[in-house]
Design a protein that fits this description.
It contains twelve helices and 21 strands. It is α+β, with helices and mostly antiparallel strands. The chain folds into three domains: 126 residues, Glutaredoxin (3-Layer(aba) Sandwich); 110 residues, no CATH class; 133 residues, Sandwich (Jelly Rolls), CATH 2.60.120. The strands form five sheets. A six-stranded mixed β-sheet has the order 1-2-3-4-6-5, with helices on both faces. Strands 10, 12, 13, 14, 19 and 21 form a six-stranded antiparallel β-sheet that branches. The longest helix is centred in the first third of the chain and has 22 residues. Bound molecules: zinc ion (ZN). Zinc ion (ZN) binds next to helix 4 and helix 5.
């Protein structure tokens, strides 16, 4: 990619700040010229990504030209009149970057990845917030800034791809968002949307708050049911209709949405397969006295049984059939008991697991996933709809084939029931 830029240098006491200029960015920086060129190229790619998503900034918008400072020695920028005192003081705290209107400032970062990430984070704010209108909610502004900032570099072409779900966290040194979420999940927290938005008043300094907002936006942007609605939000950056649009495109399904979000967040991994993990909700009914049979596919995430269970009333599940979990290096054939040489979420891959969707999602704790295996019993802690899946990383569903058939009966043994015998086929 070839970029044209003008370079104007002016020597300063104790360092040199160089001014670079492209069509949409004026960059003042004291990083090495090679690093500056890399940043200009990254900005140019990010700009195209924003325009594709939100449309170009309106003709009178200040965001048509963003002015940024990437600073190794902020004091030099201060002396050169490029860094207002209030911003300088802000950057002396926990935050490495700050935007204001069409301008941003950031402290230089250790890795090239995080340099680009932080620059595009701040510049995304510039691009999105200079269209007038009321201030948009922090979960959305910060989540979206993180969404676009998260990027990979194509190893063959060297091109940047902004706004992606990473498939390998090692390509994103210093990013660590998924690890932060995993730690929170282990500590017993998977925030619902209500809590994510509240964290911006109670824990706005914590990087975890950025991680959760990113993940929520990523989930909405990638989910087959919600992606159109999420995109629609981006059409209301400055017209004062954001809240109405949020309610219209996402609010009506909020309990269903929160249930699915918490399940996805609990197991979010690099390369998360949003399409195969997406839940198909179906009409539900109480379990009939004779029980029912359902099929659970190995290449999907959580699947509705359509069975409504009652709090404290036992349900018995017997699964039969074999399926393939991976093809390489050779087919891994499993039953619903699972295969115990690899684990996900503390359980063998392939193991049948269950979860109950409550009528209202009221908790910020990880959903209670119950290990069932080939013959399992579930005592629901809440009334609701039973969902099943065959345990696997939600990034590795596409190489699975086959299914199991699950017989679901009430926990009290029926006359003639053979559910205590191991299923064979
Ligand atoms: Zn921000």
């Amino acid at each position: 990619m070839v970029l044209g830029w003008h370079v104007l240098s002016f020597p300063l006491l104790g360092g040199e700040i160089t001014r670079y200029e492209t069509g949409h960015l004026v960059l003042h920086t004291d990083v090495k010229p090679k690093t500056a060129r890399m940043l200009l190229q990254a900005f140019d790619t990010a700009w195209k990504t924003w325009v594709a998503e939100f449309g170009p900034p309106p003709g009178n918008s200040a965001a048509r030209r963003i002015i940024g400072c990437v600073m190794v020695r902020p004091e030099d920028f201060s002396r050169a009149g490029l860094l207002p005192r209030s911003i300088e003081e802000f950057l002396e705290g926990d935050h490495p970057g700050k935007h204001q209107g069409h301008r941003f400032w950031m402290k230089d970062q250790e890795s090239d990845y995080y340099r680009r990430h932080l620059m595009v984070h701040e510049a995304t704010h510039c691009f999105m917030t200079t269209r007038g209108g009321p201030v948009l909610p922090a979960w959305y502004l910060e989540g979206t800034a993180e969404l676009y900032a998260t990027h990979v570099v194509d190893p063959r072409t060297g091109r940047f791809h902004f706004g992606v779900m990473p498939t390998d966290s090692r390509q994103l040194p210093g990013w660590g968002r998924l690890g932060m979420m995993r730690r929170d999940v282990r500590r017993g927290r998977v925030p619902r949307f209500e809590l994510i938005s509240r964290l911006w008043t109670t824990e706005h300094n914590k990087i975890e708050t950025y991680a959760w907002s990113w993940a929520y936006c990523r989930f909405l942007a990638s989910h087959p049911t919600y992606s159109t609605g999420f995109r629609e939000l981006g059409k209301h950056l400055g017209d004062g209709k954001f809240d109405v649009a949020l309610e219209r495109v996402l609010g009506s399904r909020s309990d269903v949405l929160q249930f699915e979000w918490q399940l996805a967040a609990r197991d979010m991994v690099p390369g998360f397969d949003f399409r195969r993990a997406a839940i198909r909700f179906i009409r539900s009914a109480p379990l009939s006295p004779g029980g029912t049979m359902v099929v659970v596919a190995a290449d999907r995430g959580w699947q509705s049984t359509g069975v409504r269970v009652e709090k404290g009333v036992n349900v018995k599940l017997v699964a039969s059939g074999r399926f393939i979990l991976a093809r390489e290096p050779r087919p891994w054939i499993s039953t619903a008991a699972g295969i115990s040489f690899r684990y996900h979420a503390g359980l063998p891959l392939g193991r049948l697991v269950g979860v109950v969707q409550p009528d209202r999602v009221t908790s910020d704790k990880p959903p209670r996933v119950v290990s069932l295996g080939s013959q399992g019993k579930l005592v629901p802690e809440t009334s609701g709809i039973l969902f099943l899946r065959l345990n696997d990383f939600l990034s590795e569903l596409s190489d699975n084939t086959g299914s199991v058939t699950v017989r679901i009966t009430t926990g009290t043994d029926q006359p003639g029931s053979d559910s205590d015998n191991a299923p064979t086929r």
